[in-house]
Design goal:
Elements: H1 6-13, E1 20-28, H2 38-41, H3 51-57, E2 60-70, E3 73-74, H4 80-90, H5 105-117, E4 122-126, E5 141-145, E6 148-159, E7 168-176, E8 183-189, H6 195-207, E9 209-212, E10 216-219, E11 224-229, E12 231-234, E13 242-245, E14 248-252, H7 264-275
Antiparallel strand pairs: 1-2, 2-3, 4-5, 6-7, 6-10, 6-11, 7-8, 9-10, 11-14, 12-13
Length: 281
């Protein structure tokens, strides 16, 4: 993907080390300086044609948060505090992801609020003594992010595989459009389901079945489920133009009927608040 990211290539080639392995993120920004959603940033990767045109439309920057090797020294097994020091010595400050080392809850909370106001999902909290664990956050990393919740209606469920074989697992989730009365699909999830929930929902959805295909059982919209999710993203896949990101089941709302579930109006309010440009802190 080197050819697709020429501005990052220029930045990296200007670094003084001859051999350097860094971990970081590439982020595309909108005209207001706020980060684009993940799926828009991904348009920059793998592009082979019209790279310069897309570069003007979606400028992208690299930010680094870890250093695994500098010239002849491997740092992956060193404590994070040593890797952080090596990173600071290897790159200009503007290329480093903002970082706070503190034991103060108030300072950490304020730092978190600034990250959210800037349009980011949240923070990563890391132990200063932890080694680098490739492909695994492990016990020394903790993702701290805001979670939204919505009470949505189950429209269908897909048959599971592996240890979930024979059980209805992946839920199709929707919200009612108050203008049409129809349910608008917002995405799917199989995360957060316990064995007890899988057993219960398989029995319940088969009772509510309207029709099925090879992989999916479609049901009458009578079951309400509370869904936690990180944010909403623009999606041409669904009629409402929005999709849940990182959705997981919190609980079934047997105390609620479908008319009491959240509507598309509530969904759109969350999307509008998410897209709003916050004033600078």
């Amino acid at each position: 993907m080197t050819a697709a990211l020429p501005e990052i290539v220029v930045v990296v080639r200007a670094l003084p080390a001859q051999v350097l392995i860094l971990d970081g993120e590439a982020i595309a920004f909108d005209v207001s300086g706020r980060p684009h959603p993940f799926q828009i940033t991904m348009r920059r990767f793998g592009r082979r044609l019209h790279v310069e045109e897309l570069r003007e439309e979606l400028p992208i920057r690299a930010f680094f948060f870890d250093c695994l090797r500098v010239d002849g020294d491997s740092l992956a097994d060193r404590p994070a505090r040593e890797r952080i020091a090596a990173l600071a010595a290897s790159i200009p400050g503007e290329l480093a992801i903002p970082r706070l080392v503190t034991a103060s809850v108030a300072e950490a909370s304020a730092f978190y609020d600034v990250a959210l106001a800037a349009g980011h999902e949240g923070l990563m909290a890391k132990s200063l003594e932890g080694p680098y664990e490739a492909g695994n956050r492990g016990a020394s990393w903790l993702k701290i992010k805001r979670a939204h919740t919505l009470d949505l209606v189950v429209l269908a469920a897909e048959w599971g595989s592996g240890r979930r074989s024979g059980k209805l697992s992946n839920l199709h989730l929707g919200a009612r459009d108050p203008e049409t009365g129809a349910y608008v699909m917002l995405g799917k999830t199989f995360k957060g389901l316990t064995d007890v929930m899988l057993e219960w929902q398989t029995r319940r959805f088969l009772e509510l079945e309207t029709h099925r295909d090879a992989s999916t059982v479609y049901v009458r919209p009578e079951v309400v489920v509370e869904i936690a999710f990180s944010d909403l993203q623009v999606s041409p896949r669904y009629a409402g133009g929005l999709a849940l990101r990182l959705a997981r089941v919190k609980r079934y709302r047997e105390d609620k009927s479908p008319p009491q579930a959240d509507s598309m109006a509530a969904v759109r309010r969350i999307a509008a608040a998410q897209a709003a440009v916050a004033p600078p802190p």
